[in-house]
Amino acid sequence: MIRARINTPRRRIATIVSGVVVGAVLLAIGLTACSGDNGAGVINTVDTIDFVNPLAIPPLAESAVNAAGERVFNLTAQAGTTEFTPGVHTDTWGYNGSFLGPTLVAQRGEKVRINVKNDLDEVTTVHWHGMNLPAEMDGGPHQVVEPGAEWSPNFTIEQPAATLWYHPHPVGTTEHQVEMGLAGLFLLQDDEEAALTLPRSYGVDDIPVVVQDRRFDTNGQFTSNVRGYIGAIGNEVLVNGTLAPYLDVTTDVVRLRLVNASAARIYDFGLSDGRSFDLIATDGGLLGETAPMTGIRLSPGERAEVLVRVAPGETVKLQSTAPDLGTSAKASTSNAGDDRLDVMELRAADQLDSAGEVSTTLANINPLSKADASVERSFTLNGYTINNRLMDMTRIDETVQAGATEVWTVDNAMPLPHNFHVHAVQFQVLRVGTEPPPAELSGWKDTIYLEPGVRYELIMQFSEYTDPDFPYMIHCHMLAHEDAGMMAQFVVVQPGDTAGTPPTAHDAIVPKSNLALGSGPRALSVDHGH
Ligand code: C2O
Ligand code: CU
Ligand code: CU
User: Fold this and answer.
1) What pLDDT shows up at residue 225?
2) Phi, psi at 37, each rounded to 5°
3) How much is the pLDDT for 2?
4) Predicted structure pTM score
5) pLDDT band at 498 (very low <50, low <70, confident <90, very high)
6) Ligand 1 pocket, 301 CB below 6 A?
7) pLDDT at 156 over 50
8) pLDDT at residue 504 in the model
9) Domain 370-504 in CATH: superfamily?
10) Which residues keep their CB under 5 angstroms from ion ligand 2?
11) Which CATH fold would you assign to the domain 19-37+197-353?
12) Is the Cβ atom of 142 under 6 angstroms away from ligand 1?
């Protein structure tokens, strides 16, 4: 089946990296040329799956507003077992459960506090991916939560409605902890989104779709011994922790919040009959207007909200077709770029409620202007390095002034896939190579796929939160790469200030005494945050 994008033809851009350079790079980082070639055959599950399991919908996290006016959530990272297949008990981790975590919901302007408890036997952290917040609350590798300890970050929601997510971020063990099941959604709402005609009944016509690939061993345990360069590639797909899921659709338009929560796999999501869907939002919120398309590529960490129209009584599948990785055919094959996956079956009821005339004009996005940018930086990803350096917890790589608008040029110098994520800020894409961004890169983003040899020009405005010592992270969101050191640190400081010294992991442990603030009265209201 040939599926062309309606308004964003995929460009295939030849890599500009010469073989000599590539050889040197691979030698330098101790890799064999295509580590994914050993055994990583092409996976095609199209028409092979019996969709027998109703899609699990992560529960909405309970919350209560305390005396300080903070909406307080509680998350406990814990070990358990999960039956993805009846009778087969897989060792898994989750928040407040055995796999994944509840969905947090908060309004723009609201103060939130999350009491995070670590009931695991190893250190973890919890990072609020996509959130604009003070560095100390960000949950990066410095905010270690020791086994048995608690951490209670609090911050104010200062950004538009969006599909954000949370996951662990400990240095070196992020891939493992996410694979075990630690991840959840953090949905933001605001008046602008609420004023639009869009499906927004959680679990009814507004559906979280957290997609993760996994491989099970013969004992039903997660295993990740087959890897591409990008990292562990699974041969089965979980949606919200459900294998072979189907969704009963009861409305003529359904909103899917697609989240690539996989460690490494890049998807190209579309519908099995090639019908188009409307993209309405990306990582950081709504687009300016709906963008019809038939496929959207999402690399790890990226999100997309899409509207899918269904007819009464029909069945259509969400699939991932071979994503264009922008690499050579050989590199694509060994990095899951030829894989085709059935993801989920949508089963429309015989009678569908009407969503009405859904909005097509969405958010009012102010384009950031290069003329306002005071600083330009460039980042080159190569091997497991960013600008030729591996992550060093004690080194601040970049110092940004509060409120500054900056242009960042990012390029992937390898002939293999990487992506790029910036903490605490949403950026706009100015250019992809020499082209203006396609529709799916026209809104707010915090993570972007990097085709080899293509320069991505990003523009972002940093917030007013400053901390010369506590850094935010920049990294490749392919979790094996991140764990291998493909990460850098930046601080945001007052104009004129210089970077300080990052806390050691030990200093970063928040003493339990700080929790007093957060465990305050839950009397004012108890609801589910929506
Ligand atoms: Cu979703 Cu620094 O990560
Ligand atoms: Cu992040
Ligand atoms: Cu990478």
Assistant:
1) 66
2) -70, -25
3) 36
4) 0.89
5) very high
6) yes
7) yes
8) 76
9) Cupredoxins -  blue copper proteins (2.60.40.420)
10) 129, 423
11) Immunoglobulin-like (2.60.40)
12) no
